[in-house]
Amino acid sequence: MKLVDIHAHLGMERFIKDLDDVMERAEKAGVVCVICSGVDSEANRQVLELSKKYKTVRPSFGLYPLDAIIEKFPDLEDDSPREIKAFNVDKELKWVEGNKDKCIAIGEVGLDFKVIPDDEKIRKEQIKVFEKVLELAKKIDKPVIIHSRSAEKECLDLLEKHEMKKVVLHCFSAKKSLIKRGIELGYYFSVPPVIRRLQHFQTLTEIVPLEQLLTETDAPYLSPVAGERNEPANVSVTIRKIARIKGLTEEEVAAEIWENFEVVFGIL
Fold it and tell me: Rounded distance, CA 26 to CA 47, Å?
């Protein structure tokens, strides 16, 4: 089986000591492509370097919604233990355009309304940045990997407004009606290994046609085992669970998801 992880953060500190081992385990599990997503200027360059070191890694250049506006709203904090680093959005978009042939996608990008105060200025600034990113993605003809935490409807609205075609909804945690809307728009949904213990992703997998599913890990997050670090090899956990839900073999699921991957991201 050829497995794919369309969203991981292998440049994070939790992988510094043993990334070679992590990648070896991924290859042994059958993972032949890991899309490593940037979140800011520094991370984008980091994922590019990782793609030079590991043959299975493909870089995706991203502008995480909170990081992209921290320059204007310096008091913002995320709810995860990571540092939000300020960067100039317009300069970074120019860099992304200049390096378009080196990336497989644009992401992660989108909106995050979960941790921000109820401030319309902050929401409008996120939307402004997101729309700039979508226009660039269309211009350079790249798929987008979407972060939509507590802003799923708003993300779908903007994706539809900008007539985006190759869209992956990463860790999409919306209600059923919005999942169905995403299906109707032709978007893809990436399912993490936490499906083993979260009913939401089991329900999403039941609703979404196999032809619109992809696999991700969001490593080091969304592990199948609470409290453990996640890693690309755990894509096999997701494949196994999808197969049970869909009543198919793991081989059938893996083959269809690989086809989906090629439709969205192109043939490696």
Answer: 17
